[in-house]
Amino acid sequence: MAVDDHVRWTRHGRVGRITLDRPERRNALTEAMWTRLAELATGLPDDVRVLVVDGAGGAFSSGNDIEMLQTSLTGPEATRRFHELLDRALRAVRDLPIPTIAAVDGVCFGAGLMLATVCDLRVAAANARFCAPPAKLGLVYGIGETRALVEVVGPARAKELLFTARVVDCAEAVRIGLAERAADGPAGDAAMKLAEEIAALSVVTHRASKLLVAAAAARLPHAPWMEELRDQAVASDDFREGRAAFFAKRRPDFG
Hints:
This protein is α/β, with parallel strands linked by helices. 51% of the residues lie in helices and 15% in strands.
């Protein structure tokens, strides 16, 4: 890990893990951290099947570093450049063809919340706290960040969170769909267990499911590529192994 990027990459078998590692600032995000996030997400090894994103020191992320924002948001051009950097990192995570899981301990505020919402799933510890605070700062999220929040909680709930800038605890986060699971202990442990369960299943199914769920959520019209995904699955080694395992009454081994 470079001294100034505060983002750590580790690998656990078929599961990759990106950890925001700036605990003394509750993992507040800097430009170097956003740059590193984009690099890691776009350069994952081909055989990584699931990605977990978490934070060190008992926090996911308190958001963008306030001191950095004082130099990054000095005018329209500087603001545009900064948001292009942020959007590039968020898109890199969102567009991964593999399942992604945010493990949320402690604070998940602002840009940290945006990073969590571009992941496919969120696992929250009992001490997790979520907040979209731009109304307290007179700032506006870009369309990419706003869309991610809407896709997770729906338009009315997204408006309520943005209008009030209130803090949501773990129990409410699960209730409103901001988190899919509550962890009994550290979120990272629960997320890694879930990731390993997912990684043991068919990558062909996972990749196609991400595309089809996104298409369904966007209400895209039926298209030939949707049928092609199904046909490709039937012709895949994963289907042959899954079918053989089913009839043999054993666990499938997808390699």
